[in-house]
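Supplementary Methods, section 5.1.

A reviewer requested that the exact input to the structure prediction be made available. We therefore reproduce it here, unchanged from the version used in the analyses.
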Amino acid sequence: MTRHLDRRPWSDDELDRALDDLLQLGTTAPPPIERSAGSRSRRRWAAPLAAAAAVAAVLAAVSLSGAAGPGAAEAARSVSMRAGVADVGGVRFPVPLGWSVAVTAADDDAVTACVAAAPTAECDGVTVVMAVPDGAALPNSVTDNVFGAVCANGGGGYIQGEPEIRLGGRAAVHYFGGSCTPDGPTAQAWVTNDRSLAVTTPADRWAAQGAAVANGLDLTHWPRAEAIPLVSRVMGTTG
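The structure derived from this sequence is encoded token-by-token as follows.
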């Protein structure tokens, strides 16, 4: 019988030979010993079921061999929408009426989606950034809308934090601020404590829409597991 114990993908020829061997095993099994009708029925199916189980195992091995390859990357950046709810790689959230969603950037580490009336890379709307399932945490730059203010006196902007919130059932923090005066235009950032997902809005725009997306997040279908906390809670200035 053909054996294949390594983890590399199977070729079509190797798969065909393995399936032929397994099916032959089922058809050449010795005839059952005569017993009662119930016993005959159970024994008659024993060999074919064993072969079928082996075939299923072969097919599963072939499918799993490519699970971490290009198909996984494509799944992380896939977009669909149904009944006003978007699904980006398993991250689900409501889309404001009249708006749509599009993936505007994707690499080996993260996928960025823009939720807006007209989604673009600059995203005049709500930005959702998701780390890929097996990738590193998101970089500091995902919250530059709040933390990146550079003021005339050389200091940073005003920042406040609302800790111990939940995003899609996961521990998170809500930052707002980013202006050079306490009453200046305010940007928003909701980020999970493990820095795997962030929802942001630009200064003085789309705060309500950002809150709707953040509050409506559903991460139960997202293949990335929650990790250790990395977010620090800040209140004050960055100067």
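Residues 95 and 126 are 10 Å apart (CA to CA). These observations are discussed further in the main text.
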